[in-house]
Amino acid sequence: MEATEHKAPNYIAVWAALAVLTVVEVAVVYLHLPRRLMVISLVFLALWKAMLVALYFMHLRFEPKRLLYVVLAPLPLAVILVVGVMHGFRGP
Amino acid sequence: MTAHAATHGMTGGEHAQGAVGVHTQKLGMWVFLVSEVMFFTALIGSYIILRWGTNAEWPEPRTVLAIPITAANTFILICSSVSMVKAYAAAVRDDQPGLKKWLLLTVLGGATFVSVQAFEYHHLVEKGFLPSSGLFGASFYTMTGFHGFHVTCGVLSMIWVTIRAFRGKYAGGRFHGIETIGLYWHFVDLVWIILFTIVYLI
């Protein structure tokens, strides 16, 4: 039992962080910040929350590196897909 | 025994090691999730291109959608992710009552999320905001609809897993099934975090 306890992350702390970040996100929307600053903060907050979920809830932090490479593999492809379609959409 | 299982659970398990040194069941779920990343990239990418890559008229989402209710719903989904990891932790230490309790709470959280979304759709349709209401209407219902479909599949699978848990199928360190469904569940939560920001807030 002790052996499992020290390995398990503090899920309640991650939950509290996610809750606080969600409140901050909604606050950012109603703060009437300059548009560009609002968008950058929101994207940053969303990526931060997504990272917390992937690293702690999906245990990626504790997985072997090789699994991490499998998981990260589609991300460059995702960027290529969006940039490629955006380029094609606007035309040459 | 449970400590042994837990130690090995992190690195692969005592049986069925995959090529990358993780349990094959878990690797299979990850490969599926990788394909899901591309699926949602297509949807989110289309939204980005349609909204910022064209001159199409686009309403401020917060003037059409109810941010506070959806923020609360986001929080419910995050809570159900926490109950899911709690269920996993309970399965790892072979705490059967804990496993059942946390699985039931996860089902409840997921079902609540879908119900609130159905209520939101109903409200929006009554207000006259339809899938045919321009590019925003079309992309809003496509993205949140596909996500809602994923949550619904997750809730149905979770009900199945909960029934199996009540039958003692995950006792004695057999926690890989819980870990696998958990990965799917957290992924759906993760996608919602991105969708909530892009579709509702920005």
Explain what you see:
The complex is a heterodimer of chains A (92) and B (202). Chain A has 92 residues and is mainly alpha-helical. Chain A has one domain. Chain A is built from 5 helices and no strands. Chain A has helices at residues 2-5, 11-30, 35-57, 65-72, 74-90. In chain A, α2 (11-30) runs antiparallel to α3. In chain A, 16% of the residues are buried. Chain B is an all-alpha fold. Chain B has a single domain (22-201), classed as Cytochrome c oxidase, subunit III, four-helix bundle (Four Helix Bundle (Hemerythrin (Met), subunit A), Up-down Bundle), CATH 1.20.120.80. Helix content of chain B is 79%, strand content 0%. Chain B has helices at residues 2-11, 24-52, 61-64, 67-92, 96-127, 134-166, 176-201. In chain B, α2 runs parallel beside α7 (176-201) and α4 (67-92) packs antiparallel against α7. Chain B is elongated, with a radius of gyration of 19 Å. The N and C termini of chain B lie far apart (50 Å). The interface between A and B is large, with 49 and 54 residues.
Labels describing this entry:
heterodimer; A: 92 residues; mainly alpha; 78% helix; 0% strand; disordered N terminus; B: 202 residues; Four Helix Bundle (Hemerythrin (Met), subunit A); 7 helices; 79% helix
Largest interface: A-B, 49 and 54 residues
Helix content of chain B: over 70%
The CATH class assignment of chain B is: Mainly Alpha
Going by helix content, strand content and strand pairing, the class of chain B is: mainly alpha
Q: What pattern of helices and strands is seen along the backbone of chain A?
A: HHHHH
